[in-house]
């Protein structure tokens, strides 16, 4: 369910994905301006490739904290693990759901595997014995689109869903700490306010304890402050954009990078100033990064049109009761109409009853 266009940051290394092509560069002002491009479709094919196969299409993946294994969730609801150190080793089936998996995460100590599925559930399983379930985080009423174990707070979990809510959990005991209805945060004037939407990205900024949410069909980013001691989220601001936002990522030393569908300014940097989030004026670094993306704009634009978001994951509801009641009302109306036609008309008030000829009317 991830978009074909993505953004990732590791330290000062910035990577933009467009389909099968990856663009990597640095956000450091002292960088020499080098750009690394890797095209998976044109990569050299080796006789023995270091690859692993899954039965169904991959929907999410994550590395263990030790970086020795990678967990892959697929469309059929299974999670496989592959060894990074032994790339020729076959994948090992770890656990399975009865519905499609949309996201997978690991606790920082690699003890627990957290999985989110289409049937509203978040499952917490033991990594060493995945058949042993520690807890369920239940409360969402639609598919769970994203989960994130909060960096720096290993006991807390953030989750989002097609029910337009953001929830905070103590995932080891399945206890919900906070729930926010994102639909209520939208301004009344928003034309998309009546539409359903789901969060496609959850990112956390440890420096300011900020949570940023990107939705799949809204040109806005919701910003929250996480109060770990109070175990709650405080809504701070809604960042609006004139163009569709593809992805977001935090850089600890800079702020929030926003990748958007705008050729003139495909990459924008936002940071808090005076209690409000503001776009940072163009700098030499941002101009250099935008120049790289503009040179590969055809790849980004073409890849973005392939993604359809979460539209096909909502539960289909069938209201056969209203049609039944309507037909029942029509049937009763027809019966009353036939009954009225069969019955003789009532005599008008004040008129005397006619007598047969030759028979005198009875007197008193």
TrEMBL record:
Superkingdom, natural source: Eukaryota
Keyword hit for Nuclease: no
Metabolic or biological pathway: tRNA modification; N(7)-methylguanine-tRNA biosynthesis
SUPFAM superfamilies from the UniProt entry: WD40 repeat-like
Gene3D superfamilies: YVTN repeat-like/Quinoprotein amine dehydrogenase
Name under which the protein is recorded: tRNA (Guanine-N(7)-)-methyltransferase non-catalytic subunit WDR4 isoform X2
Any one biological process term the GO annotation gives: tRNA (guanine-N7)-methylation
Lineage: Eukaryota, Metazoa, Chordata, Craniata, Vertebrata
The keyword Repressor is assigned to this record: no
InterPro entries, per the entry: Trm82, WD40/YVTN_repeat-like_dom_sf, WD40_repeat_dom_sf, WD40_rpt
């Amino acid at each position: 369910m991830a978009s074909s266009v993505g953004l990732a940051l590791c330290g000062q290394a910035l990577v933009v994905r467009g389909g099968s092509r990856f663009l990597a560069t640095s956000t450091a002002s002292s960088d020499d301006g080098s750009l690394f491009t890797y095209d998976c479709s044109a990569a050299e094919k080796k006789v023995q490739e270091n690859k692993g196969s899954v039965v169904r299409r991959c929907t999410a993946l994550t590395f263990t904290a030790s970086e020795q294994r990678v967990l892959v969730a697929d469309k059929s609801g299974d999670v496989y693990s592959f060894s990074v150190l032994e790339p020729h080793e076959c994948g090992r089936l770890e656990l399975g759901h009865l519905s499609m998996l949309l996201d997978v995460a690991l606790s920082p100590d690699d003890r627990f595997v957290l999985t989110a599925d289409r049937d509203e559930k978040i499952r917490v399983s033991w990594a060493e014995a995945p058949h042993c379930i520690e807890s369920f985080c239940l409360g969402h009423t639609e598919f769970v689109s994203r989960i994130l174990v909060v960096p720096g707070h290993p006991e807390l979990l953030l989750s989002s869903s097609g029910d337009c809510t953001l929830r905070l959990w103590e995932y080891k005991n399945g206890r919900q700490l906070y729930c926010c209805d994102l639909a209520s945060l939208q301004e009344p004037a928003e034309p998309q306010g009546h539409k359903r939407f789901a969060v496609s990205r959850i990112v956390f900024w440890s420096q300011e304890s900020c949570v940023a949410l990107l939705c799949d069909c809204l040109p806005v980013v919701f910003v929250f402050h996480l109060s770990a001691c109070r175990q709650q989220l405080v809504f701070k601001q809604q960042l609006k954009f004139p163009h569709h936002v593809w992805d977001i990522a935090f850089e600890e030393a800079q702020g929030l990078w926003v990748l958007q569908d705008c050729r003139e300014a495909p990459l924008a940097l936002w940071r808090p100033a005076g209690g409000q989030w503001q776009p940072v004026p163009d700098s030499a670094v941002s101009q250099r990064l935008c120049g790289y993306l503009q040179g590969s704009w055809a790849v980004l634009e073409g890849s973005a049109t392939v993604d359809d978001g979460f539209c096909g994951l909502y539960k289909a509801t069938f209201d056969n009761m209203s049609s039944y009641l309507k037909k029942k009302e029509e049937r009763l109306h027809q019966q009353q109409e036939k009954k009225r036609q069969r019955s003789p008309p009532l005599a008008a008030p004040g008129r005397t009853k006619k007598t047969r000829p030759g028979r005198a009317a009875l007197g008193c």
